[in-house]
């Protein structure tokens, strides 16, 4: 059996604390509800036992209350980041600090001979990531972007529908992540710390689509909102157009008290929707294009046949969404196995670079008010 990777966590807040519990307990599943407990209901038989792969060396955080939190759980607390880097028993660093610190901490870690697992957004810009990639090459250390949401079940459902053409050839996908609480009142609302929803949720939803569609993006349009925070974007609306004409609309909103479906997938033989995080939804599939005797419906003061909904059983059928057993710990496992040389990196540096470039094109589109040409 390959050696366990001993990992030190820098930044032990919401996410870092979740990682610390996940790795210390060996169960993985870095789901933490902010009150020191794991959120129940996330177990899946497919989940890897990471206790054979990773071991918690300790944490480092500048806040005394987070140090205390870790001590109460029997975790080693390093006084300084340098102390953690100087510890020869530490193989890898998990960077879970606010976004503006990721670059320096990653570079320092690799130069100290440690592999790096870095929280998303891995960097604030593609130029920063290019610098970090150069250090990874130079030192021979793994730099692994923690873009973890390609293993989420909602996305796996959409991927299956898209790849297996369960609603025919897909021409439009919409993903809308909506909440009503504005930007969290921490560093996420401050530009200098890498705040804003594009860098927070935008990275996740762009990451997954860019990975799923094996085509070049040709055009990018983006609008941002500043409803609850004048400094950082609290909402994003992005349209990506791919070579084949596939159009993807991505939205993040934080001032929405009613939600639109999480996902809609439109194909030339049907449509699918995932309504919410509970994964309620359905596929509606065409059985014959023509429907005889269409009854018009009232639309305002007029009638319409064109927009009259199809009758189930007549020309369309309704099907349940495909479901999956999925591995919450797939990224931890792949990171550990990449460090030991037993696997190839699934979330590659080049992929993270492409995602950052898409986000930069989004900002450019917002600033100019124009659609940006993109050929990658
Ligand atoms: P947080 O504010 O809850 O935690 C950040 C912690 O870093 C705090 O405890 C703070 O004291 C500490 N810190 C700040 N400066 C430090 C320094 N110089 N050295 C050591 N510690 C320092 O934020 P969070 O929600 O945990 O987010 C942290 C990172 O995790 C961000 O990059 C965020 O984007 C990412 N994140 C990823 C996911 C995901 O699904 N992949 C989810 C949430 C957060």
Helix and strand sequence: EHEHHEHEHEHEHEEEEEEEEEHHE
- The total of beta strands comes to 16
Helix-and-strand structural type: alpha/beta
N-to-C span: 40 Å
* SS summary, helix count: 9
Q: What is the 3D form?
A: elongated
Poorly predicted regions are none
Looking at this structure, what is the CATH superfamily of the largest domain?
Answer: Dihydrodipicolinate Reductase, domain 2
- List bound small molecules: nicotinamide-adenine-dinucleotide
Task: Tell me about the largest β-sheet.
Answer: 9 strands, mixed
Which fold name is given in CATH as the topology of the largest domain?
A: Dihydrodipicolinate Reductase, domain 2
Strand-residue proportion:
15-25%
Give a brief rundown of this model.
The chain is an alpha/beta fold. It has helices spanning 14-25, 64-72, 81-86, 102-111, 126-139, 153-163, 197-212, 330-339, 349-368, and strands at residues 5-10, 54-60, 92-95, 115-119, 143-146, 170-178, 217-225, 235-242, 247-253, 263-267, 270-274, 281-286, 297-299, 302-304, 316-319, 372-373.
């Amino acid at each position: 059996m390959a050696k366990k990777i001993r990992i030190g966590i820098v930044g032990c807040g919401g996410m870092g604390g979740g990682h610390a519990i996940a790795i210390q307990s060996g169960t993985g599943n870095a789901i933490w509800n902010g009150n020191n407990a794991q959120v129940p209901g996330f177990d899946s038989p497919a989940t890897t036992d990471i206790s054979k792969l990773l071991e918690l060396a300790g944490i480092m955080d500048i806040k005394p209350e987070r140090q205390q939190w870790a001590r109460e759980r029997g975790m080693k607390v390093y006084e300084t980041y340098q102390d953690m880097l100087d510890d020869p028993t530490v193989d890898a660093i998990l960077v879970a600090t606010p976004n503006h610190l990721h670059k320096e901490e990653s570079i320092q870690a690799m130069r100290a001979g440690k592999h790096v697992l870095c929280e998303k957004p891995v960097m604030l810009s593609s130029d920063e990531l290019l610098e970090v990639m150069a250090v990874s090459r130079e030192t021979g250390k793994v730099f692994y972007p923690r873009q973890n949401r390609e293993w989420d079940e909602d996305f796996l459902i959409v991927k299956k529908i898209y790849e297996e053409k369960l609603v025919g050839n897909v021409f439009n996908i919409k993903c809308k992540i909506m909440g009503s609480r504005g930007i969290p009142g921490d560093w996420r609302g401050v530009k200098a710390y890498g705040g804003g929803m594009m860098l927070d949720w935008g990275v996740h939803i762009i990451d997954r689509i860019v990975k799923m569609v094996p085509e070049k993006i040709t055009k990018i349009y983006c609008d941002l909102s500043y409803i609850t925070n004048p400094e950082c974007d609290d909402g994003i609306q992005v349209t990506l157009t791919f070579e084949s004409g596939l159009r993807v609309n991505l939205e993040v909103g934080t001032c929405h008290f009613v939600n639109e479906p999480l996902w809609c997938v439109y194909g030339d033989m049907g449509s699918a929707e995932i309504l919410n995080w509970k994964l309620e939804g359905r596929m509606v599939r065409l059985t014959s294009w023509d429907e005889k005797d269409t009854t018009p419906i009232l639309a305002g003061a007029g009638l319409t046949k064109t927009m009259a909904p199809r009758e189930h059983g007549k020309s369309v059928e309704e099907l349940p969404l495909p479901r999956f057993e999925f591995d919450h710990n797939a990224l931890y496992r792949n990171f550990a196995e990449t460090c030991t040389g037993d696997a190839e990196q699934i979330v590659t540096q080049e992929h993270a670079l492409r995602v950052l470039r898409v986000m930069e094109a989004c900002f450019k589109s917002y600033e100019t008010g124009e659609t940006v040409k993109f050929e990658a």
